[in-house]
Design a protein that fits this description.
Blueprint (H helix, E strand, L loop, with lengths): L1 E6 L5 H13 L4 E6 L12 E7 L7 H10 L8 E9 L7 H10 L2 H9 L4 E9 L10 H9 L3
Parallel strand pairs: 1-2, 1-3, 3-4, 4-5
Helix pairs in contact: 1-5, 2-4
Length: 151
């Protein structure tokens, strides 16, 4: 199976998740990895597209937004998408305002689903960091590997 991974990473946490996924996927699949700022081949060449972004101010990065919007016309209901974000778990923060905002605004993951189109085959997942700049919560790379093992 041919798999395309497109991601952006600000503090290195999303990149660590991608590297973990790649370890598993490279065992049985052809995997191409691109940063969102790079030129990406047509998604029509791939069976599965994985897209990952950190959550910044409850949204994905501008590079991911641009990349997704440029590929929407190539998306079809036969294409499988796995999308993920890395973010602080608002339910574990003690700040009441912080825990309230995501329920009103949403997360990067919600925006990415909306831009791709909810009618597509989309699997989604969030991976958590302890604070805005990280590090990843213990066990998140392993959880990412398990998430893609079914491909």
């Amino acid at each position: 199976m041919r798999i395309l991974i497109i991601y952006d990473s600000i503090y290195g946490n999303t990149e660590k998740i991608v590297k973990g996924m790649t370890e598993v996927l490279n065992e049985n699949h052809n995997v191409d990895i691109f940063r969102a700022t790079q030129t990406v081949p047509s998604i029509s060449l791939y069976d599965v597209v994985v897209i990952g972004s950190p959550t910044l101010s409850f949204a994905p990065t501008k590079s991911i937004k641009t990349k997704i919007k440029s590929m929407v016309s190539q998306a079809s209901d036969q294409k499988r998408f796995y999308i993920f974000d890395t973010r602080v778990d608002a339910n574990k923060k003690e700040n009441k305002v912080f825990s309230f905002l995501p329920h009103k605004k949403g997360y990067a993951l919600d925006d990415m689903v909306k831009w791709l189109g909810e009618q597509l085959q989309i699997e989604k997942q969030s991976f958590y960091v302890k604070e805005t700049e990280g590090p990843l919560v213990a066990g998140e790379v392993e959880r990412a590997k398990e998430w893609v093992e079914v491909l």
